[in-house]
């Protein structure tokens, strides 16, 4: 099996590595680089457990070859924390009991983060639509939707921030 040298920036850290031509990005992230927050479930683009952000778009990393990701910037669930502080989405999933076994959770959070970037105040239907590629085998969907609603509230700019922008 031939190998290829690729460059990958993951959560802001640059990596240069050799990958096999048939290697899936999900396995490179987990097995070679140690970003084990990205889970692998079905390996066939159904469950969404392996969802990561690739150059700003959420993709299922079991459907992307590592060589295809050469030169891209990837964000995994590990990249959500800043200064060891949980991201508001992570806080909300904890507070709203948006997980049971937790296997789907990293993928759910990546999809939620992508939704909230473009739709900061989503309604229930928009949340369900954004998460329809992510399956939860514990079927905790109700609390997952609540968690995303709560995250949206936490991430909304405060009145004082809005006031500052108005004055600029
Ligand atoms: S492991 Fe990638 S979609 Fe299920
Ligand atoms: S919390 Fe178990 S699969 Fe979703």
From TrEMBL:
<dbReference type="Pfam" id="PF00111">
    <property type="entry name" value="Fer2"/>
</dbReference>
<dbReference type="Pfam" id="PF01799">
    <property type="entry name" value="Fer2_2"/>
</dbReference>
<dbReference type="GO" id="GO:0016491">
    <property type="term" value="F:oxidoreductase activity"/>
</dbReference>
<keyword id="KW-0408">Iron</keyword>
<protein>
    <submittedName>
        <fullName>(2Fe-2S)-binding protein</fullName>
    </submittedName>
</protein>
<feature type="domain" description="2Fe-2S ferredoxin-type">
    <location>
        <begin position="4"/>
        <end position="80"/>
    </location>
</feature>
<dbReference type="InterPro" id="IPR001041">
    <property type="entry name" value="2Fe-2S_ferredoxin-type"/>
</dbReference>
<dbReference type="InterPro" id="IPR036010">
    <property type="entry name" value="2Fe-2S_ferredoxin-like_sf"/>
</dbReference>
<keyword id="KW-0479">Metal-binding</keyword>
<dbReference type="InterPro" id="IPR051452">
    <property type="entry name" value="Diverse_Oxidoreductases"/>
</dbReference>
<dbReference type="InterPro" id="IPR012675">
    <property type="entry name" value="Beta-grasp_dom_sf"/>
</dbReference>
<dbReference type="InterPro" id="IPR036884">
    <property type="entry name" value="2Fe-2S-bd_dom_sf"/>
</dbReference>
<dbReference type="GO" id="GO:0046872">
    <property type="term" value="F:metal ion binding"/>
</dbReference>
<dbReference type="GO" id="GO:0051537">
    <property type="term" value="F:2 iron, 2 sulfur cluster binding"/>
</dbReference>
<dbReference type="InterPro" id="IPR002888">
    <property type="entry name" value="2Fe-2S-bd"/>
</dbReference>
<keyword id="KW-0001">2Fe-2S</keyword>
<keyword id="KW-0411">Iron-sulfur</keyword>
<keyword id="KW-0560">Oxidoreductase</keyword>
